[in-house]
Amino acid sequence: MGLTRSSVGRLAEERSGKVPLTGHSIALAGNPNVGKSTLFNTLTGLRQHTGNWPGKTVATAQGKCRLGTETYWLTDLPGTYSLMSHSPEEQVARSYLCSGAAEAVVVVCDATCLERNLNLVLQILEITPRVLVCVNLMDEARRKGIRVDLPGLSERLGVPVVGAVARKKQSARLVLRELDRLLRGSPPPHPTVIPYPAAIEEALSAIDPIDSPLEPRFVKLKRLEGDPEMLEELGLPEVDPEVLTGLDAAGLSPQMVRDALAAGPVQLAERICRDVITYTSPGYAQRDRTLDRVLTGRISGGIVMLGLLAFLFWLTIVGANYLSDGLQWLFDQGESLLTGLLGNAPRWLFGLLIQGAYRTTAWVCAVMLPPMAIFFPLFTLLEDVGYLPRIAYNLDKPFCCCQACGKQALTMCMGFGCNAAGVVGCRIIDSPRERMLAILTNSFVPCNGRFPLLIAMLTMFFCGTGGAVWQAVLLTLVVALSVAMTLMATKLLSATILKGRPSAFALELPPYRMPQVGSVLVRSMLDRSLFVLGRAAAVAAPAGMVLWIMGNIPVADGTLLTLLGSFLEPMGRWLGLDGIILLAFLLGLPANEIVLPIALMAYLCQNSLTQMGELNQVRDVLLANGWRWQTAVCMLLFTLFHWPCSTTLLTIRKETGSWRWTALAFVLPTGFGILLCRIFTLLAG
């Protein structure tokens, strides 16, 4: 749900393929949401993030594991339902499998919906016979009364089959042992052949073989299918026209041939599953259907979605209060210790390090980051349960009404963690137009850097004695406003510079699962929260130094900081804010977490950021500098809708390859923020 420490450094280098590979090269393939990446993580020890929605991973990830003296390099391919169409996930998976880079392929399947998964297995068997089928989630299948005859499945497919629970190491070792046997050729695989209608089989036999590293039958099938893009991708010639004439004589048009080729593996998968699957509890899916009627209902779905979001915010706010108090006390003790150590240092050095870098960093860590540290694991739990795809389903119709793709709801959810990660996640959208819509509007939803500031504003000015419950309700309404503005901006772009019709896509609603609470907590705290904490501290420390310098350069009757604030004062007042707030937003471009500390330092005019343990003290400072409730409302609006942070802007530049689109991503939310602030200022006037 955001950038992680395993997204950078040595692990990213290994997964990008820059580290020389010595050993066996193995591909991991499978449908989305079958536990493929979980198996990858268990085998390699990496922490690649998994998500319960299709197409989450759109590039390959690499890692290595060992069994005895053998080394295996695993390539985790994007989740895909088929190899026959042209989405980015299918193209990446198909290209890798056809390249011959993998000595063998491990295809991960979901034991609770095996029939749908076998379609991909059979397609891969046409490309390579060296396949190991890993039937995952055997524990859930048992709980749901589903029994899979693994030996029978292996016999029908003609390749080895192993049952597994991907998160368990003993299952991972079993997969490696079977993989070792497969690579040694004992016993050799004899994959089943997908039968097609007699006319198509005759046409296949009539196609002359060509010299190709790919399987001969697969080559003939692709040539017979005749897709120009596929033939170009695989470097295959078109089929002899006489073969097509024979199909025409049999009454099969090119489209009917393609339909028959697509139906072949599906029909065979149905027959195999009838033989190897037994249902001991036929009503096992009834609970999921009942839950779906509530969670995805036309009215109940929206009510539950808002209620659940409010509950998450309530837990975040309550927990953040305790965490902030503890961290503030810890940082106060740290400052006392550092003051003793640097007591004899020059004033400029003490101010630069303690009053500038340390106090700004302490503020960001103690006040601004605890809500994010709590919200991350709570949101990830929703992922593990399988609720996020239901949110996308509920929001699909509104996005389609805006001429956009329902997958944009998924990238929007990723933006709640980090807008930069949400922009990268837009790769799951096939249409370039719809992908651009999602990229340009992703920063309309608040990221982890803006959530704490929103919570602080609501706490100080609007909650009164209502406590955390009222805070959670108001924060939910604020987030709902950001979603509404996302839809409005999407509609505006669709009607102007990005006109077009929405495309169709398949969205899987995975079965509900018990979340892996321990894994979520560890992964969220160690791999996400601490990573973001370090990133925020890396920005806050130098920013604190710059602030201290600006606050100590005398200019006229004040400092450089107050002078710049005075210069921006007319524009700030026009928006219902003031010059100091606008200056804080401008200087906070590297990270939203430092906006409020900048404003406080400028307001206090004490050349440094004063220690503040409670938000009541902050509120007193703001009120003393002319803040009213109207100012707080405009602050909320501008916090929601202003330019993305520098990290997000650079990510947009990288994803779009254009500074013009990046400039539009800067201007679009800022324009909405200015417009909303001005309208409110006039109405509240």
Overview of this structure, please?
- The strands form three sheets. The chain has a six-stranded mixed β-sheet with strand order 2-3-1-4-5-7, with helices on both faces. It has a two-stranded antiparallel ribbon with strand order 6-8.
- The protein has 685 residues and is α/β, with parallel strands linked by helices.
- It is built from 31 helices and ten strands.
- The longest helix is centred in the middle third of the chain and has 42 residues.
- It folds into three domains: 180 residues, 3-Layer(aba) Sandwich (Rossmann fold); 54 residues, no CATH class; 359 residues, no CATH class.
Give the termini separation: 41 Å
- Based on CA atoms alone, the radius of gyration comes out at 29 Å
**Helix-strand makeup class:** alpha/beta
Shape: elongated
What does the largest sheet look like?
Answer: 6 strands, mixed
Count the E strands: 10
